[in-house]
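thread from #wetlab-drylab

HS: before we spend reagent money on co-crystallization trials with zinc ion, can we at least see a predicted complex? here's what I'd submit
DV: go for it
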Amino acid sequence: MTTIVRPGEQTAHPPATAERCSLCGSARYKTLLRAKGRKVIECHGCGLRALDPMPSLSRMIAINEETVHPFFQACLEDESSYRGYFANKLDDLQQQRTEGRLLDVGCGAGFFLDAARARGYDVAGVDLSAVPTAYARDQLRLDVTMGSLYDYRAPSDAFDLITIFQTIEHDPNPAALGAELFRIMAPGGTLMVTTPAADGFVARVMGKRWFGYRNVEHVTFFTRRSLQHALEAAGFEIISLDVEHGKKLTMKYVLNRLINYYYNHRTFIRNGLRLLHPAVFLLGKVVLFEPWAHLYAIARKPETASSVGPVPAQLPAQEPDGGRGAPPTITDE
Ligand SMILES: [Zn+2]
């Protein structure tokens, strides 16, 4: 649910720009579209779609500060929907492995971890947002760390299973993210990823109006091709990769997402949406279904793979403010 942006990223390692693709290094790209004042480019080499230029880290932090709290409330109100969705994901995970150490990256309020623990996994989570991680720790008694995956500095080969739901699209450098996931995964371990599908039905119908392009928190946009490239380039073997239905959605959730969607629009639109909240209570039982909206991949780190290397050099220094809350937290469904 939440992301990962390396503090200090901009100075040390520029993310994707028109110069070079951050995923495959290709210098060949085209301008795909412009949406909401943002330009999205597509790499010829791997198909990755990314903002050009990438927003600054400080900009993303500012956006997150404004969006995380309403989103967190929406999460709590939509808990049963999340839990239903995650139960299906756990069914799939158990087909790969029925026990082991599991890390959920971008764990948010911890609904998935809570359910995974109940099925016998030894669970831990990491998330950039203070409020959801506090909820996961205090209400659900989960082992959850606030901070980025990079700050987390897990030992190599530390986890048998890693899940990362709706998070990779927030990271300006998918190659660095893939490398870190691979490093901390034990050989033979299973990775489960979801991300909005830029080649899904909804995205193709909506074009540049697709929420993925307009969500101010998203900086990369994956198709089946580019997600496969990202996972394989990191060293993973694909077990399955397809477009799936998303969660069941309540009207209230949709409304909260619309408020986020119109983040940059005139204030009266956002306030108008907020005013609609009472009406939504009347529709509270209406359930929608996200149609073919997400990519869903399961991958494996080969048994023979080695990840004995050191912690990657691009890991940031300690937070200058002592780690209070500076890491940007970017939240998603
Ligand atoms: Zn590329």
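DV: The pocket of zinc ion is lined by residues 21, 23-24, 26, 43, 45-46, 48 (CB under 6 Å).
HS: ok that's useful, forwarding to the group
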